[in-house]
C-alpha cells in the first residue's frame, strides 16, 4: 500500500502516544478505533477523518485542532482562532454575555487587521517613464 502524505501526522501521534505512556492497543481502545487502523495511521498509510482525530485527541488529552492541522484538515491560522475561541468559552471566571462580547471584539480586531494588511499590500507603484528601472 502506498504511503499517503500523512507521515507527519503519524509520527506526531506516535510521539504523543509514547509521551502518554500508552501502547498502541491502549490508545486504540481509549479512542474507540481498531488497533490495526491506528497502526496504519501512525505509519502514514491511512488518512483518518476529523471524527477519528477528535477521538484520538481526546484519548491523548491533546488539542484536536493540532491534529487537524497536521492532517491537513485545518490551516494554522484557523487552528489558532479556534483555540482562542475555545479558551474564551471555557473560562469559568466570566459569564456567557461577557464571553460573547469578548468574542465580538476579537472578531472586529481580526477584521480590522486583515483590512489593514490588505491595504498595505496593495498594487505596486508604477515607476515614472523618466526614471530608470531600479535593480
Main structural class:
mainly alpha
Shape: flat
Q: Total helix count?
A: 7
Rg on CA atoms, Å: 22 Å
Q: Give the tally of β-strands.
A: 0
Q: How is this fold's topology laid out?
A:
Blueprint: H1 7-19, H2 24-31, H3 35-42, H4 50-60, H5 64-71, H6 76-90, H7 96-120
Helix pairs in contact: 2-3, 2-4, 4-5, 5-6
Write up what this structure looks like:
This protein is an all-alpha fold. It has 7 helices and no strands. The chain has helices at 7-19, 24-31, 35-42, 50-60, 64-71, 76-90, 96-120. The radius of gyration is 22 Å and the shape is flat. It starts with 6 loop residues before the first helix and ends in a 15-residue tail after the last helix.
Can you describe this structure in just a few lines?
The chain has 135 residues and is mostly helical.
Defining key terms:
single chain, 135 residues, mainly alpha, 7 helices
Amino acid at each position: 500500500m502506498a504511503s499517503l502524505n500523512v507521515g507527519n501526522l503519524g509520527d506526531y501521534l506516535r510521539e504523543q502516544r509514547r509521551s502518554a505512556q500508552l501502547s498502541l492497543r491502549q490508545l486504540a481502545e481509549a479512542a474507540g478505533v481498531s488497533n490495526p487502523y491506528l497502526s496504519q495511521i501512525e505509519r502514514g498509510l491511512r488518512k483518518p477523518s476529523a471524527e477519528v482525530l477528535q477521538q484520538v485527541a481526546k484519548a491523548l488529552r491533546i488539542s484536536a485542532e493540532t491534529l487537524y492541522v497536521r492532517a491537513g484538515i485545518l490551516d494554522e491560522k484557523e487552528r489558532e482562532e479556534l483555540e482562542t475561541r475555545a479558551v474564551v468559552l471555557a473560562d469559568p471566571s466570566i459569564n456567557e454575555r461577557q464571553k460573547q462580547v469578548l468574542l465580538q471584539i476579537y472578531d472586529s480586531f481580526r477584521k480590522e487587521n486583515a483590512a489593514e494588511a490588505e491595504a498595505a499590500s496593495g498594487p505596486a507603484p508604477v515607476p515614472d517613464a523618466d526614471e530608470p528601472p531600479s535593480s
